[in-house]
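Can anyone check this?
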Amino acid sequence: MLLIPALLCACTRQVSTISGGTPRASKSQQSTIESPDQNANGQVQSNTQTENGAGPASHGNYETQQKDGAELRQGRYVPGIPGGKLLAVTVTSDPKTFNAWAADDSFSLELCNLLFRGLADIDHSTGDVIPDMAAEISCDPDKLSYRTRLRRGLRWSDGTEINAEDVAFTWNKIVARGYGNPALREAAIVDGKLPVCTVEDELTNKFITAKPFVSFKRVLATLKIAPKHAMESTINRNDGRSRFKELWAADKDTSQIVTSGPFTLSAFLPGQKVELARSSNFYMIDRNGCRLPYLDKISYTIVPTPGAVVLAFDNKEADLAQIRPRDESWLATQQEKQNFKLFNLGPASTSFFLVFNMNRRTSPKSHKPFVDPVRSAWFNDTNFRQAVNHAIDRELIVRDFFKKAGSCSFACEPVNSPFYNHALKPFPQNLKLSETLLARSGFVKRHDGRLYDSSGNRVRFTLSFVKASKLYDLCAHTIAGDLKQLGIGVELQYLEAAQVQEIANGLGAKNWEAQLFSVTSDPLDPNSSSNLFRSNGRLHIFDQRDPDLRGNIVVEDARPWELRLDHIYDEAAGEFDRNKRKSLYYEAQKLVYDEAPYIYLVAPNVIVAARNTLKNYTPTPLSQASLGLHNVEEIYIDQGKISLNKNSQDSTSSGKSTSDKTSPFNASPDNTGSSSTNPGKTNPVNGVPGNVGADRAKSGSSNSSKTNPVNGVPVNVSPDRAGSGKTIPSKAGPNKASTSNTNPSKPDSNKASSDNTTPGHAIPDNTNQSSTNPDNTNPGETPPDKTNPDKSVTDKTSPDNDSQDESNPDQMDPQENRQPR
């Protein structure tokens, strides 16, 4: 599992926890469009349930067909029409690399999933592990030995045959030696050891695990096979490790990329687009024997703002896009007119949390504590952490930021996991309970309104988060405002994405105090996130320990409940009885729920807009990261019903950003007051009435509506509470901050939203671009500082700036930590 800032939620067992790609409709349409069931919490659910709890039933099994001596994988969808280009629009930063084994940002991973394949794959309807490049995967009765046999006739995009030596090279050189993304190696370790891979013949490999490992097939499903002939010379160099990271990096030479997937890299224009072209050597055919994929090209247009996504889709310049929850209600009214559907893929499969640094050790270099001992004592106090946990108003974030298209989070497993422990009850904000918990540990709130510990130290700490994420910004200010009511002072500090990623990987400074993070993992396999909870895990964020000279992490000061978590994850990894494994993971969730080393916050729903001209498009909750393109080989475009106009395709293929057009969707607040009105239509981004079409740029009367459609707050009503106090942008590190102060208000303040940055993608997580939106408050109004009782400051980076697409955790932050898929 990889780390970067992102999200999560809760449900019932007898039905699937999230909608399996169910089309969304406006209230007026709900009588004619099939609507999914909802539970008592209003969460969308599917009516069907597979054994894995993943969602709707499978479309059948993939069959193998012999053709010219090759074993080809036959598709399982209705045969389609070859040709055409799929146009996707995304708010993200550029991919960092096209090297699938070094990728750790969401957009790079998403693209690499289209360029490379592995021995196995996940059926995104059922959640089952199924063979992919392998024709067969078997396990011996001892549950220690696995054999994989590649399909005959597999070839790399350059025509070279794919064989067992490629598999052994991938495992023994790239994974075992820790090249590229270390998450690949950590996911495969069981009982402290990595499985051994040998070559039995030209197509067959044997893997031996140290002990029975129930998740091993899922490990194979996350691992892409690497081309030995194209990579070995790089790895064998003296500087091979650094060279490997640069191999096929987005800012290096990408002309020699060798792929095994359905597409190859065709073009990359930084800041504009990434285009993939059909591979002629891909090993799939349809039922009629036609070579797949059908699509000639897939083009991702990179736009700077979430509003530009809506604009591009409205202008018919895109077939596919992820949209923000706040835009869903307006777009639902446009589905029939604009020939598309909205699909709600349910709560994001990402854990988004607040974490305190509980490190109690000293730096081996300075011999000083990593964390100030006074504050470390607070952070290591369960009553203190639970007081913070119960003080946070999650419901406000879901209501005002997600427009209810999201949910509150309380547990370490996502609710779309069949292992989710439904006995862990959600809870509302309860400041009285927080005060009681603090009092138990000797904290006292004095007459000055500030909280002090039993030794008379004023309670305050620094909360760090990635600047580029609007959701992180808003949550940080919300938390600061809530804790101020308890007398706790919170100083906010911006970090660059690279800083957070270093901290997540255990390479950065360990003197931070509190941070917002997000982690994406496999909802069907809790073991995928074990390195977040194991005391010797590199992603054990709340108390990271340094490895020794051999790269091993030896733990000598684990807390009793940490030791119990270690034992649970070790035992569960070797437990093949599903009910027993579920009981173990239930216990682990209960420990994390009670001890609160991670304080889980909220999860947005993942909502995708897809043009009706896309055929065989069947998104599922498990295909969130690919925007539903899990069966991209069999997706085709209905050429007779194409609604994209030629000018749109020309502008998109040329790399021109759709945000270049003047529109209220990406206009600044100062430009939203004069637009030609069109009764009944309201701009979902800035609340200005007007025709949402060709006349976007015209001017006319201002918004007479009494409610801002962006945040649902009456116009000209000042915010009822400001979220936070002093904000410290940082370029040097967590404790090397400048003195720029900001004071953004909470999402219910009256602000016209201005789309200024990018979200991450996994689309979801991807990496977001950093951007600010100066002084988005009401004219002449400066929100009071409700976090810092010492001074009032001016907001220079309002959380109402649409710098980040909150609909996707991956779109939440520049460095969402992700499990390789």
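Reply from J.R.: I decoded it. The two ends are 10 Å apart (CA to CA).
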